[in-house]
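Q: Entry one of two.
A:
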Amino acid sequence: MKTKLAHVRVNVKNLDAAIDWYTNKLGFKVSATWPSEKPNYAHFEVDYGATFAIMEDKNYPSYGRFNFNITDVDTLWDELKDNVNVIEELVSTPYGTKKFTIRDLDGNELGFVQESES
């Protein structure tokens, strides 16, 4: 079976706190929330690839790990390293990428990866 990942969601303890963290710490922009009368779900703008979403849910925590491909990992590292929970510092990998990993407010691991320019 061939698949294409279209949507990823993690469960969070408090939607408002999580939205604040993702938008103010990482610069994500909320694309939509749902349901309109009392939102417990939000997803963020994407340029390409899978939609990344969060949801306030009784099944919290979900503890996932997600890698985001970015074009300038060094600049993002410099912006974030002193303001977030770092679990893997910026490193060059043996397979030609540079990356670092942090934890969000709810324990989910977020990796930021820059592909080699070959």
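Q: Entry two of two.
A:
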Amino acid sequence: MRGFAPVAGRTMVLVVAGLLAFDGVLQFLSPPFLVETMAHAGFAADAGQRLAFVTLSCAILLAIPATAPLGAVLVTGFLGGAIAIHFRLGEIGSPPQLICLLLGVVAWIGLYLADPRLRRLIATEEPTASLA
């Protein structure tokens, strides 16, 4: 793919990484509303900084082109865990669940558009035979 698709894909990946980085910084700062929300979900009051480390690590790996596939896999696991927590709390179809799902989908679509290695791995078309 040439032209617009790789740029659009890279932009999508960077938007997801940026949102995760913002979330990680927020978790690191642990404002009272976030501590309350995490306590409601069953997390210890001091879990924010440890969770921030995981979130920021995933965001950084996703943002670097060479490590973006690994970052996408880790982000998928991280967001899947967040979705599972909301499911456990009975918040099925809640905005946080839908946001996590959307972030994961956007990350993978963006990576598919931006990274030729992933497009080759997920070959959706049969290679055309050479007429030479």
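A: Comment on entry two: The helical segments are 4-29, 32-40, 47-63, 68-88, 95-114, 116-121. The CA atoms of residues 36 and 93 lie 21 Å apart.
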